[in-house]
User: Which sequence fits this backbone?
């Protein structure tokens, strides 16, 4: 914009409730950009508002009509202030940003000479809402923005770095209790397991520079204080009191904006003996160092992992790869609770095939010791397992004590409550990472999601808003995750079937399929997945995918679809990248949508493998038909009383099927594509109760005859 006078005419919009947007926008903008509100005058006879503001060496005069008789005094003010905050934020140098428009500029251009603003009367006759901007004679001094960030793992450093990129002059201090900064904690299991040996890779930039206080000071001009703990926030004085742990020295630091990124602490069982040497978690660099030493010293024969979640099995794999006999203890009846039971059982079967044992439905009652060292664990049922190492991985608890002491609001899920801008109940204090609650974009419910990628995204949003308040949003998450367990990848996004029902979706449909990620001639590997959708709308609610194939790509596609509120109908013809090295001609995700579409349209009735198992166990009256070839049948079969009739021979052997047309017939093959085709044939010949076992033999997690 040229350094001259400017008039902006702005047409605001009404929000969904019929009210004008709140005047809080102006107050935030004033505080953010160092403006001074010099006049805020309501004109009752004209039902209008007139404001004059000083911003640096600029003066802005604004005026507005009240939209109707029913609006009270603040209405005209809110009409002006929201428009002013957004238009001025976008147009006045050096203040840039403010792209979240609620209306549009309908006219703009140079008007009056400096020092001669348009009068209220002439302005009001010409325009419903406008701004007159001119230079001030005396510039206002401004102090650098003072930013303090508490927490130096992932979210905190990200917020600090983003704030620095937004404001080169800000004074930024990062307070970290641990001696290390910006640790790649998700890499701990792979360091323990020997995927890489250089510890510094956990705290390095992509260029190989260690992220230590010197790096932050020189490269980012951020004052990083390590081995330093913040123990008091004074919201009135706007100060943080901290202690340098090695020396015990205490200091107080003022702030204009504060970020709480205090993370989470591992949940520790109440079982006696937790303090024994050999009992640990995998949460800090010190934990990773200790478990890496266990691997390198090669003195440990047996280990126990307490907890059957993502971290538990990543640790299990690391220990097993080190040659340690490992047992996983899970208190509930199922491992990997984000999966539905059928897929979780398949993963459990895969893990057992690689050596570790898994005990479900049992917890640790006591850690048994000898001379101060761990010697074993005693389970709730009395079983004793000898071991020299026990890794506890039963979840984390958000560190909210500092926020609670400052009377910052804590949510129902136990994390710090934040809005979409990552602001807490104090608008000058932000919170990010494992200590906060997230909003589900599917159900709207609040929950905690302690994942490293989300911590970085939240840190970026907070860092931008520290300097340009309200300019970045973190609206919520779809709850997406992935992990490697031996030769399997386990991925998920959105809600499982069980989670969807718990969230109030009472009319859902699921579709389970098995297939290859790429063609056989390119070395395709197996994928088994389950899609969850709302039956009425077709909206996709969740997706789970496991197997040795490329799970990550499929989960990423569906995660994006869920975020965009896409339906099954949107996905059946999705234009995804295809070439034989990367995908089948009809990608696995699209096949999932096809199966779901067939079920929603009534062209297919499906049964899960667990439902078929229940029918077999209860000796239900049903006819089970295997549609594979005789050679496949001889190589592998279920042995559940099935009859073999290959698909190609089915039309000629219909007389071998039950004559009762209402008899339940369950069909399957290797992945149940032939089972679906066979079901169409039988339905065309009058059988009315024909069902397909979804996923076929490849989705069967139970013992087989062969």
Assistant:
């Amino acid at each position: 914009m040229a350094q001259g006078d400017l008039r902006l005419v702005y047409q605001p919009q009404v929000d969904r409730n019929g009210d004008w947007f709140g005047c809080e926008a102006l107050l935030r903008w004033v505080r953010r950009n160092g403006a001074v509100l010099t006049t805020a005058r309501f004109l009752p006879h004209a039902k209008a508002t007139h404001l004059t503001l000083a911003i640096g060496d600029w003066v802005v005069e604004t005026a507005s009509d009240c939209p109707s008789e029913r609006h009270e005094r603040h209405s005209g003010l809110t009409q002006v202030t929201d428009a002013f905050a957004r238009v001025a934020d976008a147009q006045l140098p050096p203040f840039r940003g403010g792209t979240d428009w609620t209306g549009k500029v309908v006219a703009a251009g140079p008007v009056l000479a400096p020092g001669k603003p348009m009068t209220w009367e002439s302005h009001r006759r010409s325009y419903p809402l406008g701004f007159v901007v001119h230079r001030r004679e005396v510039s206002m001094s401004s102090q650098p923005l003072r930013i303090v960030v508490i927490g130096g793992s992932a979210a905190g450093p990200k917020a600090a770095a983003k704030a620095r990129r937004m404001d080169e002059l800000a004074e930024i201090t990062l307070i970290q209790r641990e001696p290390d900064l910006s640790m790649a904690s998700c890499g701990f299991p792979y360091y323990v397991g020997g995927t890489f040996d250089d510890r510094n890779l956990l705290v390095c930039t992509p260029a190989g520079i260690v992220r230590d206080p010197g790096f932050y000071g020189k490269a980012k001009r951020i004052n990083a204080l390590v081995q330093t703990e913040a123990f008091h926030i004074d919201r009135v004085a706007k100060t943080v009191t901290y202690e340098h742990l090695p020396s015990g020295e205490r200091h107080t630091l003022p702030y204009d904006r504060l970020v709480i990124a205090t993370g989470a602490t591992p949940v520790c069982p109440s079982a006696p003996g937790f303090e024994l040497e050999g009992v640990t978690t995998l949460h800090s660099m010190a934990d990773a160092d200790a478990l890496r030493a266990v691997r390198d010293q090669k003195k440990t024969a047996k280990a126990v992992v307490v907890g059957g979640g993502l971290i538990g099995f990543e640790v299990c794999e690391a220990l097993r790869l080190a040659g340690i006999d490992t047992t996983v203890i899970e208190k509930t009846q199922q491992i990997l609770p984000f999966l539905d039971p059928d897929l979780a059982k398949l993963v459990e079967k895969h893990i057992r095939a690689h050596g570790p044992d898994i005990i479900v439905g049992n917890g640790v009652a006591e850690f048994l010791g000898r001379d101060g060292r761990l010697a074993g664990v005693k389970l709730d049922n009395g079983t004793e397992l000898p071991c020299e190492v026990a890794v506890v991985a039963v979840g984390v608890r958000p560190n909210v004590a500092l926020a609670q002491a400052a009377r910052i609001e804590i949510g129902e899920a136990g994390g710090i409550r934040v809005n979409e801008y990552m602001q807490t109940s104090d608008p000058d204090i932000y919170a990010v990472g494992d200590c906060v609650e997230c909003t589900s974009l599917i159900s709207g419910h609040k929950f905690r999601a302690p994942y490293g990628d989300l911590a970085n995204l939240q840190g970026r949003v907070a860092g931008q808003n520290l300097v340009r308040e309200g300019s970045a949003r973190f609206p919520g998450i779809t709850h997406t995750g992935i992990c490697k367990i031996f030769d399997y990848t386990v991925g998920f996004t959105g809600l499982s079937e069980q989670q969807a029902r718990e969230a109030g979706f009472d009319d859902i449909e699921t579709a389970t399929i098995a297939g290859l990620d790429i063609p056989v001639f390119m070395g395709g590997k197996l994928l088994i997945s389950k899609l969850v959708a709302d039956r009425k709308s077709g909206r996709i609610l969740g997706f789970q995918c496991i197997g040795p194939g490329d799970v990550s790509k499929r989960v990423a596609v569906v995660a994006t679809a869920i975020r965009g509120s896409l339906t099954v109908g949107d996905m059946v013809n999705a234009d995804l990248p295809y070439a034989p090295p990367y995908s089948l001609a009809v990608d696995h995700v699209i096949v999932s949508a096809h199966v779901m579409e067939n079920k929603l349209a009534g062209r297919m009735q499906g049964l899960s493998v667990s439902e078929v198992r229940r029918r077999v166990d209860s000796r239900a009256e049903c006819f089970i038909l295997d549609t594979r070839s005789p050679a496949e049948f001889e190589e592998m079969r279920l042995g559940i009383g099935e009859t073999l009739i290959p698909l190609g021979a089915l039309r000629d052997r219909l007389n071998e099927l039950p004559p009762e047309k209402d008899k339940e017939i369950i069909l399957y093959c290797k992945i149940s594509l032939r089972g679906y085709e066979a079901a169409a044939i039988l339905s065309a010949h009058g059988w009315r109760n024909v069902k397909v076992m979804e996923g076929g033999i490849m989705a069967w997690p139970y013992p087989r005859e062969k």
